[in-house]
């Protein structure tokens, strides 16, 4: 496609020339029409003067002029506006007052004839104004036409840029395919090439990241599984032999291996649930039913710690969500509450319907956290107190980070606050209905 600059310059100059020419033609025609009216009045004036010599009456159409014909001090002809006395005795142009108006007067003498013609100054001014308006009016009405034509031309010239912007805006987060446009102008071609190169580099970077995460998971899972099996066998053999020395160290080592295994799984989940790479399958889901399902799955852990849990609020609450993502969100929230709440503690889930939103509140009476820690709690690998968390429970600091990514995926909101009990934490999640 040709250059946008050349296209705009050529078309706009042509349009301005055409509209200016049309306006000039119209102005010329109106000026000619008005001039013809003046010439017609001159013809009428001439005919009046001729007819006056034969005693004819004054013709119609001379109401704006005052005409006198004198011969040897005798008034031979006077128009309707002319007085019966001589208007002026001075030859040539002058200005006189009569019949309550100011007149421009021309007097001419030849032999024994004296001709006086007068015209009101106000009429001359009006005539001048009409001539000016007749010249300007076509230019004025051509301006909206010029603006419309320019708008159409510019819109057409910028159409490729608009299509380019629309394609970029309609791309999903995981769509890094090159942008293709028909008939790309010179100015946009380089921008298009640079954008496509950037998209290609981003696609390659995401692919390397996914391959790296997959390779790391594969390479770490197998050795960790083997290490867990060997540790379990070693600890069993140790116990069967009746040796007590070193069992505490072996148990700590086993806990460390389990924690590392959980950390790898959490990192994989965090990478998988990133809104930029996760392909959500949104569908209507009953959030209350999902809460009951997650509680049933984690009930053995709750029973093991003798914790009490209750589900309050709406018995049925439908939201549009991805089944895997929403269940993972619930599992992490309930799992965190169970993990950090001491034995015999209390947990509460409450569902409520808000205007255009569904709200879930997960509360516990665990140790909680200070208010200044609420925002940082969503950071990756951040734990209050680090590895020396006051609950004494090991963790990776990724649970709430994963939950935040899942809430972002559903275009919802999440925040932390103090629970209803003297200690503890309340997590509030709102998702669109």
UniProtKB/TrEMBL annotation:
Keywords: ATP-binding, Kinase, Membrane, Nucleotide-binding, Phosphoprotein, Transferase, Transmembrane, Transmembrane helix, Two-component regulatory system. It is a multi-pass membrane protein. The keyword Nucleotidyltransferase does not apply. It is found in: Membrane. Coiled coil: none annotated. It catalyses: ATP + protein L-histidine = ADP + protein N-phospho-L-histidine. Its main location: membrane. The keyword Nucleus does not apply. Its EC number is 2.7.13.3. The chain crosses the membrane at residues 131-154. Residues 155-207 form the HAMP domain. Residues 215-433 form the Histidine kinase domain. GO terms for molecular function: kinase activity. SMART domains: HATPase_c, HisKA. SUPFAM superfamilies: ATPase domain of HSP90 chaperone/DNA topoisomerase II/histidine kinase (SSF55874), Homodimeric domain of signal transducing histidine kinase (SSF47384). Gene3D superfamilies: 1.10.287.130, Histidine kinase-like ATPase, C-terminal domain. It holds the Pfam family HisKA. PANTHER family: SENSOR HISTIDINE KINASE YKOH (PTHR45436), SENSOR PROTEIN QSEC (PTHR45436:SF14). This is histidine kinase. It comes from Rheinheimera marina. The lineage of its organism: Bacteria, Pseudomonadati, Pseudomonadota, Gammaproteobacteria, Chromatiales.
């Amino acid at each position: 496609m040709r250059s946008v600059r050349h296209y705009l310059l050529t078309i706009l100059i042509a349009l301005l020339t055409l509209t200016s020419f049309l306006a000039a033609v119209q102005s010329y025609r109106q000026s000619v029409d008005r001039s013809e009216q003046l010439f017609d009045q001159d013809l009428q004036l001439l005919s009046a003067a001729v007819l006056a010599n034969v005693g004819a009456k004054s013709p119609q159409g001379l109401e704006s002029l005052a005409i006198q014909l004198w011969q040897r001090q005798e008034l031979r002809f006077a128009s309707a506006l002319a007085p019966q006395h001589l208007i002026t005795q001075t030859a040539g142009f002058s200005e006189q007052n009569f019949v309550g108006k100011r007149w421009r007067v021309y007097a001419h003498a030849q032999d024994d004839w004296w001709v006086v013609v007068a015209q009101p100054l106000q009429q001359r001014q009006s005539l001048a104004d009409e001539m000016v308006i007749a010249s300007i009016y076509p230019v004025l009405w051509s301006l909206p036409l010029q603006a419309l034509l320019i708008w159409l031309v510019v819109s057409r010239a910028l159409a490729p840029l608009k299509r380019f912007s629309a394609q970029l805006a309609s791309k999903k987060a995981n769509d890094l395919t090159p942008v293709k446009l028909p008939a790309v102008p010179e100015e946009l071609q380089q921008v298009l090439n640079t954008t496509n190169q950037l998209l290609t580099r981003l696609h390659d970077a995401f692919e390397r990241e996914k391959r790296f995460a997959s390779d790391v998971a594969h390479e770490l899972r197998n050795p960790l599984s083997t290490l867990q099996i060997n540790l379990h066998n070693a600890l069993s053999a140790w116990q069967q032999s009746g040796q007590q020395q070193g069992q505490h160290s072996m148990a700590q080592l086993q806990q460390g291996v389990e924690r590392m295994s959980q950390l790898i799984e959490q990192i994989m989940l965090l990478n998988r649930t990133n809104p930029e790479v996760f392909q959500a399958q949104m569908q209507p889901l009953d959030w209350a039913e999902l809460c009951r399902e997650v509680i049933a799955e984690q009930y053995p852990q709750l029973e093991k710690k003798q914790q009490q849990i209750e589900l309050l609020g709406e018995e049925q609450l439908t939201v549009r969500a991805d089944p895997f993502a929403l269940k993972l969100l619930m599992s992490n929230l309930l799992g965190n509450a169970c993990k950090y709440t001491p034995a015999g503690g209390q947990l509460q889930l409450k569902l409520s319907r808000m205007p255009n939103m569904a709200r879930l509140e997960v509360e516990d009476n665990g140790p909680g956290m200070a208010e200044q820690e609420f925002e940082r709690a969503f950071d990756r690998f951040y734990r209050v107190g680090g590895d020396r968390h006051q609950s004494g429970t090991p963790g990776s600091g990724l649970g709430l980070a994963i939950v935040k990514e899942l809430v972002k995926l559903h275009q919802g909101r999440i925040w932390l606050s103090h629970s209803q009990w003297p200690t503890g934490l309340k997590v509030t999640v709102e998702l669109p209905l």
